[in-house]
Each structure stands twice: as structure tokens, then as C-alpha cells.
């Protein structure tokens, strides 16, 4: 729903949204540049295989990003509630008008669906929103 709201410039401006961090959102157009920390599971079985790629592409277009990216190491790995070490798999796109970060993680939690909030997400979101003030 959040990304759907962002598709409508008037709604985004009315709600005064300054940044977003969707977890496995559907791909809608984004009406104006919006700082984003997009989080999804590499093997998310609840979304189509290209859903995250398409959603991030919409943010990249709105945020005027280049096609290139670099690893984003400000978000550290963590230990999954299911045991293994989690790689957040984050990148930040180059040349964007606002921060555009995509984390494609390998947290196997959530009954093996990788669809949920991974172990690193709450701290990463807090840090991201703090930087956007």
C-alpha cells in the first residue's frame, strides 16, 4: 500500500512522506524523488521472482539514479533467528538525487519464505530514517 501511495504526488505531499523503507513491496510508479531503503529476501516465495527488481527500478527512475551501484556496508550482517549468519546484501545506486538503497538478504526465517522483516532491518530502518531528517 505504501508504494501505491507514493504513485500519487498529491498523497505523498499531503502526508509529507520524507523517506520510505518498504519490505517486499509491489512495483508501482513513484511520483517524485523519495529516499528509499528497499528490503527483500533473495528467495522470497511470497512475491514473484522479479517483483523486487521491478519495484527498485521504479525508485531508481524517480530518483534519477544511474544503472551502476556500489556495496552499501553501513548495514552489518546479523544472526538469523533460525541460526545462520545473514548477509544483508545491500547496494546503493550511483548518481541518485536522493539515497536509493536495495538490500536483497538471505535471512531464511519466516518458515523458509524469506518474506518478512530480517534480523538487520529494524536497526537499518532506524538509522536510515534518522539520516533523512
- Please give the share of residues in helix: 25-40%
Rg, alpha carbons: 14 Å
As for the number of domains, it is 1
Task: Enumerate the spans where pLDDT stays under 50 for 5 or more consecutive residues.
Answer: none
- How is the main sheet built? 4 strands, mixed
Proportion of residues in β-strands: 15-25%
Question: Could you characterize what this model shows?
Answer:
- There is one protein chain.
- The chain has one domain (2-131).
- It has 4 helices and 6 strands.
- The relative contact order is 0.21.
- 26% of the residues lie in helices and 17% in strands.
- The protein has helices at residues 2-6, 9-15, 51-62, 121-131, and strands at 36-41, 69-71, 78-79, 85-86, 90-93, 100-105.
Short description:
Helices cover about 25% and strands about 15% of the residues. It is globular and about 45 Å long.
Amino acid at each position: 500500500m505504501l508504494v501505491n501511495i507514493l504513485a500519487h504526488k498529491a498523497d505523498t505531499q499531503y502526508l509529507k512522506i520524507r523517506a520510505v523503507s518498504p519490505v517486499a513491496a509491489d512495483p508501482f510508479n513513484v511520483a517524485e524523488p523519495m529516499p528509499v531503503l528497499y528490503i527483500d529476501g533473495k528467495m522470497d516465495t511470497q512475491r514473484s521472482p522479479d517483483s523486487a527488481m521491478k519495484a527498485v527500478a521504479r525508485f531508481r527512475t524517480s530518483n534519477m539514479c544511474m544503472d551502476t551501484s556500489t556495496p552499501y556496508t553501513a548495514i552489518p550482517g546479523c544472526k538469523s533467528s533460525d541460526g545462520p549468519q545473514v548477509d544483508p546484501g545491500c547496494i546503493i545506486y550511483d548518481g541518485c538525487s536522493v539515497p536509493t538503497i536495495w538490500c536483497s538478504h538471505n535471512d531464511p526465517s519466516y518458515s523458509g519464505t524469506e518474506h518478512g522483516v530480517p534480523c538487520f532491518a529494524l536497526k537499518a530502518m532506524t538509522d536510515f530514517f534518522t539520516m533523512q531528517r
